């Protein structure tokens, strides 16, 4: 089986990603994301693309590191971080999704009284990361088998952290695996934590808050703290690709 995603030039992969991303209602998406800390983009990847990306997992030449979660107390399962240059489709999605999320991120920071603002294009934000010594790519491919799970966590890799990220489900629930639901928890000040279980199908993407989001209260906006994870896989095999927009030290 080929280990390459797409034989088309990178510029065409980016253009294809931009075209499919442009078809979504981003105003509705932003409202959902701001209201709940997560929002779904349905069928952003085709089944064929999902299978092609998942098939990269055994091929070490595409990755810079291999993490076994149990060794670090992250849960049970494993993942690999892609190395630069990223596969065309993953790099294209990262580039095309960023401007829509940057608008939300800037609005959130304004509401939370955070001075940081994010540039309109991803290449400019990556330059900020690299100037700060954060040069290692963070998109990753995760693999789960029965009994595996991912503890609730936040993906913060340095002083610069983009406040939103996206995970794409590459496997079909009920066919390729059972269990393995995406879970988001929100720790609200002086209140019980709120849990959100996000139903996804193959090719769907969920965007979610990495760390904090603003919530409107009676005395203005306040910050809530979020963590995300994956519940126990009960059967089969589950693959996910995660796109984090900041690079790591």
TrEMBL record:
Keywords: Iron, Metal-binding, Oxidoreductase
InterPro entries the UniProt entry points to: DUF2086, Oxoglu/Fe-dep_dioxygenase_dom
Domain Fe2OG dioxygenase residue range list: 135-248
Annotated transmembrane regions: none
The keyword Methyltransferase belongs to this UniProt entry's keyword annotation: no
Family affiliation: Belongs to the iron/ascorbate-dependent oxidoreductase family.
Protein name per the record: Fe2OG dioxygenase domain-containing protein
Organism whose genome encodes this protein: Pseudochelatococcus lubricantis
Lineage per the UniProt record: Bacteria, Pseudomonadati, Pseudomonadota, Alphaproteobacteria, Hyphomicrobiales
């Amino acid at each position: 089986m080929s280990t390459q995603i797409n034989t088309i030039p990178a510029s065409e992969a980016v253009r294809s990603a931009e075209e499919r991303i442009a078809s979504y209602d981003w105003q509705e998406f932003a409202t959902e994301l701001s209201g709940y800390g997560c929002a779904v983009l349905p069928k952003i990847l085709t089944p064929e693309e999902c299978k092609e990306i998942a098939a990269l997992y055994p091929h070490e030449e595409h990755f810079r590191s291999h993490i076994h979660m149990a060794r670090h107390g992250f849960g049970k399962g494993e993942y690999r971080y892609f190395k630069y240059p990223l596969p065309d489709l993953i790099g294209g999605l990262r580039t095309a999704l960023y401007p829509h999320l940057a608008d939300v991120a800037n609005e959130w920071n304004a509401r939370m009284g955070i001075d940081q603002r994010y540039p309109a294009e991803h290449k400019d934000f990556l330059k900020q990361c690299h100037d700060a010594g954060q040069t290692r790519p963070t998109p990753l491919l995760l693999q789960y088998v029965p009994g595996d799970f991912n503890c609730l966590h936040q993906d913060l890799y340095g002083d610069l952290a983009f406040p939103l990220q996206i995970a794409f489900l590459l496997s079909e629930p009920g066919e390729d695996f059972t269990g393995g639901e995406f879970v988001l928890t929100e720790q609200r000040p002086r209140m019980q934590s709120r849990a959100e279980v996000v139903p996804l199908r193959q090719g769907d993407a969920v965007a979610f808050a990495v760390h904090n989001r603003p919530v409107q209260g009676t005395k203005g906006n306040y910050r809530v703290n979020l963590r995300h994870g994956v519940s126990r896989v009960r059967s089969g095999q589950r693959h996910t690709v995660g796109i984090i927009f900041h690079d790591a030290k």
